[in-house]
Amino acid sequence: MNIATTVPEARAESIADIWPAADWAEREARDHYALEFAGRDGSPALMLRGEDEPGLFTRTQELRRDVDPADAAHAEAPRADTDAGGPV
Amino acid sequence: MSPVIPIGPYHPALEEPYNIELVCDGEAVREAHITVGFNFRAIEWLAVRKNYTQDLALVERVCGICSNVHTLTFSRALEQLAGVEVPARAQHIRVIVHEAERLHSHHLWAGVAAEVIGFQTLFMTCFALREKVMDMLEAVSDNRVNYAMNKPGGVTRDIVDPGMVAATARAIRTAMEREIIPIPGGEACVRIEGPRGEVFCYVASDGSDVPLRVRIRTPTFQNMPTVALMVRGQTLADVPLIQASIDPCYSCTDR
Fold first, then answer.
1. Cβ atoms within 10 A of the Cβ of B197, count?
2. CA distances from residue B166 to B10, B67, B82, B162, B173 in whole angstroms, order as listed
3. Over the stretch A46-84, which tens digit does the pLDDT of each residue have?
4. Is B22 helix (H, G, I), strand (E, B) or coil?
C-alpha cells in the first residue's frame, strides 16, 4: 500500500508510539527534510550527528553538483585540504 | 547501578561500524540502544544530482554484498515510469543473477553465524560454498561485487552458454548500450525481496535526465530496531548471535 500526502508546514503527528517501526523512518525524515513529528522533539538524529542541523536535503538543495556532501553534512568547519566552501 | 556495556562503533567483533549499548543486570540484558549512521554517504542526496545512467552505478554501491538488488529495483522503477517491457531472456538473466546473489549472501550469513558461535568448520564450509557462487557470478559479469548486470529495459550482458554460464557477447552488449530510454515525468515504487529482506525503491521524475527524488529503503533499516527488542532478557553472550541472525548490513542502512 502506498499513501501520498502533503503537509502544510514541516510538521506532522508521530505514529511511533502506535507503530514502533516508524521510529527510524520519522527520525530520518527529520534528518533529511527537517520534518518535525509532534511529541518527539527530544529524539536524537538517526544519520546526522551532535550539533548538525536537521534538514540536510532541504538546506543543501541549491548546492552545486561538484560540492562534496561531506562538507555540507556536518556542523564543523570544512576540511582544510578542500576549497569546496563552508557549511550551509 | 546497572553496568552499561558499549560495543562499537569500531570494535574487533564488528564487521561494520555501528554502536549497541547494553544495559545489563548481571549477565542478563535489560535494555539495548542502537546507533547507526557511521557509514552515511548521502547516496539519496547524490542521486538527485546525477543523471539516470550515473545513478545506476551509484545505487549499485548502496550495498557491498547485495549490490544487484539495488540496480534491479532502480531499473524496474525506471521501466515502470517509461512503460517499458523487459524481454523474456533478459528477465531470465535477471533471475539467475539475483538468485545467485541471494545464494552467496545467505552463505555469508550462515558462515558468519557459525563463526559467532565458535563453529569454525561450518564457517569454512559455508565460505567455500559461497566461493563457488562468487566464481559463477564473476564468470557471468567479470565482477565479484558490483556486477553491473541490470539496466533500464533489460540487462547489460547476455549469458551465451548456459552450461558454462560464461563469456559475454560483445556485439549484443554494444547494441544494448546504444539504446537510451527517455524517462517521462511521474513517480514509481518498486518492492523486491532482496537477500536480507524487502528492498523498496521510489523514483520521482520531472521528465529530465536527473531524478527529482530517489528513495531506497533497505532491509536492515527495518530489521535492526527489532534487535533491541530481541536481546531484552537474553544473556550477554547471546547478543552477537541475535544481532547476526538478521544478517545486518550497515552500508545499506546508512546509505
1. 16
2. 40, 20, 31, 8, 14
3. 888 877 888 888 887 776 666 666 666 555 545 555 555
4. strand
In sequence order, what are the residues at sequence separation of 6 or more whose Cβ sits closer than 8 angstroms to the Cβ of residue A41?
none
CB contact under 8 A, B45 and A60: yes
Copy the grid coordinates of residue B103: 545464494
B180 reaches A (C-beta below 8 A): no
Contacts of B42 in chain A (CB under 8 A): 56, 69-70, 73
Read off the pTM. Answer: 0.83
CA nearest neighbour of A26 among A17, A11, A16: A16
- Chain B residue numbers touching A47 (CB-CB < 8 A): 36-37, 40, 254
- Which of B37, B46, B49 is the closest to A47 by Cβ? B37
Name every chain A residue with its beta carbon within 8 A of the beta carbon of B225.
20-21, 23-24
Q: What is the residue-wise DSSP string for B88-108?
A: HHHHHHHHHHHHHHHHHHHHH
- Give the DSSP H or E segment for B140: helix B120-141
Alpha carbon of A65: minimum distance to chain B alpha carbons (Å): 6
CA distance B53 to A25: 28
Distances in whole angstroms, Cα of residue B196 to Cα of each of B1, B107, B220: 37, 12, 7
Residues of A in contact with B221 (CB under 8 A): 24
Quote ipTM for the complex: 0.76
* Inter-residue contact B192 to B72 (CB < 8 Å): yes
